Structures are given as structure tokens and as C-alpha cells.
Amino acid sequence: MTEAHLHRQMQVLGDHHPHAPAFSRPDHTDTDAALLEGMLDDLARVVRGEPYPGEHHRLLVFGHARLAARTPLAFVGFRGERRLEIDPLVESAVDRIDAALVSGMAQVPGVLSYGCQRLPDGNWINLVVLETLSATGAWHRSALHREASAELSPRYYTSVRLHNGLLPDGVSGPLRVLDTKYYDFSAEQPWLARRQF
After folding, report:
1. Alpha-carbon dihedral 83, 140, 177, 61, rounded to 10 degrees
2. Which mean pLDDT values do the consecutive 10-residue runs of the chain (197 residues) have?
3. Domain count across the chain
């Protein structure tokens, strides 16, 4: 199944959608946004020259001067729930592609930083800070990203929330979610939806 095919199936959610999976409730976006704001605070401290906290965190800064300028920026946040059992070949492929995507981010125009944080339940949340939301286009078009999102994500995750938004005051916050895309891979036929805020 291609990424374009997945997105053609995406439905639009309103405030109340009683038959939607529980992970797509709007309050989950609020919870994720609070975690992303904590990561943004960590990034702001690093940009100011303070030490980076936490052994379960990873942060890469590609555009220090732009991040320090306190001008409007954009972000993408990712929160996925791993399957309880994952094929070792899938796990290996995900690790390989993740390493390749992260190492190539410095060359993607408009990508300013990448951070990930391990959560208490063993899952991860990621924050990518961008000059503008249109900067996502370059990495979405890459073969590696297409393989990760369309082929591996359904076999690695039961569900994914993908947040797009703005940082009106840059890394000093606050963080404003514009929309969340939901991917439910728990059944044979994926359920996909999008909610605007």
C-alpha cells in the first residue's frame, strides 16, 4: 500500500466522532502537545548553550542561528504505539531506516532540529522543528521516508498520531497544533483520519 493510497482513505474528524478509535480523542493531542512543549523547552535551553538533559533523549540541532532568532517556526510531532510483538526483520529495517533518515536530516532544506524522547511505557515521541511546514515536502518525497511510512509503520505500530503546527515565537514557545493525522494499523484494513484544531 502506497503512502498516497493511505492518504486518499483519510477521513476528516469533527469534535465528536463516537466510532473513532480511542487513541484519536482530542485530549490525546493535548497530552502529546504537553510532551512536545517539554521537548521544546529542552531545545530552547540547548540553543541558549545550556547542557542537554536526560539519558532517554536525543537532540540534533542543524540550524542554531535560525533557532536562536526567536522568529516564527513550524513543527511536526510524532507519537507511535509499538506492537507488542514485532518481527525481528521489521525491527532491524526500522532501525536502519531511522538511522539513515536522522543522519540525512542535516541536508534537508528547512529542517532545523530533531529530537526524540523515550516515554515511560517504552514508546517514543519525536519533535522536528522546521522553518515552515512546507519544509516537510523534501523528506516526504524521499524513498526512505516512503518505505518507513507506507511499508514499515503498519508492521511496527498499532497506532500513530502525527501533529503539524506552528511555533509563533520560535523555540521559546508556545506550541500551537494545527492538525493531527491518525493512523490505526491494529486491524487488517488501516483506519486513517485527520482533525483540524
Report:
1. 90
2. 51 68 88 94 91 76 91 95 91 85 83 91 92 78 70 87 95 92 88 90
3. 1
- How many angstroms separate the CA atoms of 90 and 185, rounded? 15
Residue 175 sits in a domain of what CATH number? 3.30.70.100
Q: Is residue 17 part of a domain?
A: no
Contact 113/63 with Cβ under 8 angstroms?
yes
pLDDT digits (tens, 9 = 90+) for 92-104: 888 888 888 888 8
Give the structural domain span for 152. Answer: 3-12+22-196
What pLDDT, in 10s, does the model give residues 177-191?
Answer: 999 999 999 888 888
Does any domain span residue 138? yes
